[in-house]
Amino acid sequence: MKYFLVLFLSGAALAQPLTSNFDGEIELLAQLNNPIDDLWKKALEYLRVLLKDHEPFQVPDMPEQTVTAEGISLKAKFDNVLVSKADDFVIDHLENNVLGLWAKFQVTVPKMHIDSDFTVSGTIKGKQVSSKNGHFTLDIDKLVTGGFIQVAFKGTYLQMSKFDINYTINDLQFSETGLEVEGMTKEDLDKLFHDSFLKYFQENEQFVCQQVGAYVMEQANKIMYNKSLQGLLDWLDDFIHGRIIHLDIFNFM
Fold first, then answer.
1. Greatest distance between any 2 Cα atoms in the chain
2. Where do transmembrane segments lie in this chain (predicted)?
3. What is the pTM of this model?
4. Number of domains within the chain
């Protein structure tokens, strides 16, 4: 996600009125042909390649989840979380206001696949469940993410000042192995976790978006810190041509 965002920031810098302290902006702009569109196109396609080449890619462990229903109270911890099928994202909308230094975007991932190990503890129908280990798969149908980005100059370099995002999930499919509970079939357990995950994502959208937004702002501002316009363009050029090999790819959601 941070790569996706930095592209806009660079484009905004390129078209910013020439009142900042960057040297040689007129000459730089004269050398570039439609720089914003070109940067978006090249970097997004390279991002798609990276997602495919690194599939599946590991992401930070998911926070502990509480699963509750009639007679059921479980805590579940997820580790070794792997994501795939994220490279077929569709760009629904991109809108830049380079003079106002803001942008809007919306992307859709048709079906994102997640694999993870889990450990659960708690009670199911009065029976204690302790340290049961297993594995689950989660397919998220039609994840649509939109957002608004605002940046501003801090001295001679750009910093992100606002990043608001939202998302919708059409549905998800959950399947697990390794958890056995007397009186419940595998289908019963799958439905229990399906309902819990879907409820969590739908009811905690604001919290999830705030956490993601704060992290993205922090990472993007680290990239842009103290970089001149030319320095930011050089960083983008290195990314587009594969000279930056570090991939913290989960943050594009």
1. 74
2. none
3. 0.69
4. 1
